[in-house]
Amino acid sequence: MRGFVLAQLRRGGGRLVAAGIAIALGSAFVAAALLGSQIVKTTAYNAVSAGYAKADLLLETTQWESGLTSDQLAAAAAVDGVEAVSPIYQLSFIVSKDAASDYVWARSAASDPRLESADLDSGRLPADASEITLGIASAKRLGVQLGDEVVAATFADTGFVEADDGLTEPVAASYQATVEVVGLLAEPAGFNFDAPTAMVVHELALNIAANGPVEHTTDSSELTADRALVLLEPGADIHTVHAELDAMRPDQLFTASTVEEVAHETVRMFSGDADILTAFVLAFAGIALVVAAIVISNTFQVLVAQRAQLLALLRCVGATRRQVRGSVMLEASVVGLVASAVGLGIGILLAQAALWIVPTLDLAVPVPSTVALTPAVVVWPLATGTLVTVLAALAPARIATRVAPLAALRPIELVPVRKIGRTRLVLALLAAVGGGLALAAVTWLAVATELSDPTALVALGILAGAVSFTGILVGAVYFVPGVARLLGSVAARLGGVPGKIAAANSVRNPRRTTATASALLIGATLVTMMATGAATARDSLATLMDDSYPVDVAVRGAWSDTTTPTLTAAQQAAVEQADGVAKAVPVRGKLADVTAPDGGVWSGSVITTAPATELAAVMRNGASNVPEVGTTAAPVWFDVEDGGTLQLTAEGTTIELTNDPSAMGQLWLAEEDFDALPGPAEVTAMWVSLEPGVDAREFTVTLRDTFTELSATLGDAPPEVSGAAVERAGYEQVIDTLLAILVGLLGVAVIIALVGVANTLSLSVLERRRESATLRAIGLRRAQLREMLAVEGVLIALVGAVLGVVLGLGYGWLGSALLLGGSGGLTLAVPWRDLGLILAIAVAAGLLASVLPSRTATRTPPVAALAVD
Amino acid sequence: MTQLDTTTVPAARARQLTKVYGEGAAAVHALAGVDVDFAAGAFTAIMGPSGSGKSTLMHLLAGLDSATSGTVHLGETELTRLGDDALTLLRRERIGFVFQSFNLLPMFTAEQNITLPLELAGAAPDRAWFDTLVDTLALRERLTHRPGELSGGQQQRVAIARALIARPEVVFADEPTGNLDSRSGAEVLSFLRRSVRELGRTVIMVTHDPAAAAYADRVVLIADGRIAGTIEDPTPESVLAGLDALRTLESPVAPAVAG
Ligand SMILES: Nc1ncnc2c1ncn2[C@@H]1O[C@H](COP(=O)(O)OP(=O)(O)O)[C@@H](O)[C@H]1O
Ligand SMILES: [Mg+2]
User: Fold this and answer.
1) Please, what is the Cα angle at A24 between A19 and A26, to 5 degrees?
2) Which regions of A317-474 does DSSP assign to beta strands (E)?
3) Mean of the per-residue pLDDT values for chain A?
4) Are A471 and A429 in contact (CB under 8 A)?
5) CA nearest to A509 within chain B
6) Cβ neighbours of residue A356 under 8 Å, at least 6 residues apart?
7) Could you tell me the domains of chain B?
8) What ligand is nearest to the CA atom of residue B51?
9) pLDDT digit string, tens, across residues B186-197
10) How confident is the model at residue A274 (pLDDT cuts 50, 70, 90)?
11) Distances (CA, A) of A749 to A22, A97, A799, A827
């Protein structure tokens, strides 16, 4: 039997290429996901352990106030086998040069050079208190170079003091020292969040700390160390020393751990996330493998059908059923193993390519230079790929055993087609309808109960959705051919004779068409679901936004703490003349002192107003919440209850207003009240409504540019542009990014499905060699033959895509209702553009899938029609 | 050597036709300079031993394959000059085929199979002609059946109807009875003969069966890629005798054997 399998592989190996590609893509995905996760972890580990130089052990205090005391450090240093102990002193201060200043996170140099982890870009570490080594980024911000002098300063108090002239100015530094920049630190590696951005000698650190804000120092104004690095003598046993250090702390004043432990622990903290991410990506690899399994199963079914006579002949000459099944399984194992190995190779190459590219991107991430091939990384892709192939071949292998020896004596066309069982229909219906109803019920519950945390319901919903989708896939053979026939009748009407033949061909093998279309249906459904979810989230959030941001765009004068923020005349004109503005309403503002009922005074508060009639034109809610005369909404931090009285005073005149928290804005007044208070009013903001169809994102960007130009020429501080449109741009970007990632991950499954379409066409073309030749002989032109296959490819792809789009819309709506329904404001959306794109891609892919099969078909000479088997 | 019909243009004509498969030492001269005319309105059989070049000659006459040298004319048209698309159009409009393995499209009904050449040509079906064919070939009851539901003889009759539906100038049949039992075979051959006698078509049939050849008006004998003679008004016996003569002579050029 083995000889037979090998002969089959040699003879018909080409027919298995597509199946091989499908499985190789799947296992490449698995390999890349595993390698990616491993690279992230290795990178994190490298970065973390790089911060500990050559240290073997790490001491960490449990007493945050005192840190590691000098007694503790001395005791640790005295332990047998300890060569050096270097406490890590860290503090922050300000470094300035002329007008520029920068906060640095500084560390004092290690007491032992072997424990110094600083990564110098140039120059050296400081030798005394008159020197500093600066992080390269800080140096750039300050505009200093090696040899320049900078001022290191610290402030005991922060904030502003009132100067003699009535203006505020920063408090004076409590300590400052002029130091020379003697070295630059390299950009800290990614993941190394603790890396210092400056290095000073311990003496300077002590001086700064002694004068700095209280939180950096103890009562004794001493700089403390939370951690210390421990270096062992050569040959000392790390476990013995570890145990001895542990024994030193019955009082639990500090902990000792090996650097490896610490690094692993730190990596575990990040990679908890990395593992979730890996699992997430692997889930998509799983989807890709399921799609590959469909393609493989289909391929083997076709092969078994094409070989029916050969298999029957084998049975005639004495092969047992077991041997026949064994031959199919052996063939599948070989294909699965070879393809998985190829996939593993592709995955490794992809990961390695990433490792080559990342360092050139200047991301300062210490990625390893080569991928590390652990057993898991090698075994998983091989095992999953092979296993999926073998499992997918089980059903075809069983069919092969059903070929009766008698079939050898019958022409191929008369080998009976297996009837589709009833149990399948029942199971499929149960799963599809049951799961669907469950999903609908869970969604209804989520919407009705408005749970704040619907995690459990979401999990249930995902399960129900998966069950119903599985049911639909299992039952696909009952409705996919019908849809194919429907679309085919359109193609037959539009496509002339080639269309008619293609339509007839596409439903000739209902199982084959179903399997091929199903593979694509999975991808199309999931992509549509994501796109629908994204569109629904977008629209739903837009509804919520409209409530919290009543206008499309608000332009506010630059903030100032002494005067009313003001839009200059030029800026107002710029807003009014901007393209796309439907209406711009100026908002007037002036300053007033506000006295809360509890006696608290908020002096210099900005009060605002605008004509209510004008507002109705720019506000999305029709200006329904403009405050009544005599009321206003107090900012929450005023802590005024509903109905409380606020006193507003300006230039000696006082009015009283009732707090109405439901009114719009903060200290927004009815015009009458606003005008009752004296004092100069300025145009402090403009509220803008956009013309329908104007791209808010673009509008905002253009307007900001205009303001920047105005500032450059007139010197006015540029105003702030915000509003629903701007907010929307922000979260739309998040949604779009997420969608792009999800679609990218699903892309592999879709590509495999398209390989499947090409595969089915090629296998069919081989099978219909004589037919194609006959058609050519009786007058079908080459181009028409190509057209015929193109129509067939498009038909199959479209069936999958159309059904996928319909299902995906349903799942997308249910899913978004489930996730967002509780928060109110759910707006179900149809992502027309994305749906159109999916169908267009399906058509293009169907065409593409027919290219290679067409070449095979058109190469068949018409003479072949006359050949006898 | 062949009898030229001086009154009308022959339906098909080959001159100095050669076909070489392969190259160098492995080259096979399937046709080695064939000159032959096939009269219009006649039923001609091409006969010869296996491997003598019968099928090759037919492929070239029907525009299915290209010649190595020499010319082929279908009526006034020289096929050897035409490109693939022109040949396809010519086959579609002027030639009909009957194959040994029937070659019906399994997903179409008998009726759809019969009218396929018209659809390919975008021509409206001629109902009267369709009815004539269907009745002559006794297919009325079978029109809605698919090939899988028809016997071999019925399938071949559908194939004949398909070959004739577009009223081609010539119908080529390659071993049309090769896959049929002798009764169905006889039926199919009588239909082919009727289509010539009663419907005025031209049929050129390749066969190795003397009994089948006897249905023809004339037999062209071929041996080793050359025309070895013709038999007018053949009977099974005269055809057998002709073939025997070829075998005994073992000569590339055999004298014409009178029927
Ligand atoms: N496609 C081909 N390639 C190579 N040799 C061929 C091919 N077709 C036919 N031949 C050879 O050409 C000769 C004539 O073949 P053919 O016309 O099929 O003979 P017949 O139909 O009389 O049996 C034979 O020797 C055959 O082997
Ligand atoms: Mg032959």
Assistant:
1) 100
2) none
3) 82
4) yes
5) B107
6) none
7) 12-249 (3.40.50.300)
8) 1
9) 988 998 998 899
10) low
11) 9, 57, 17, 30
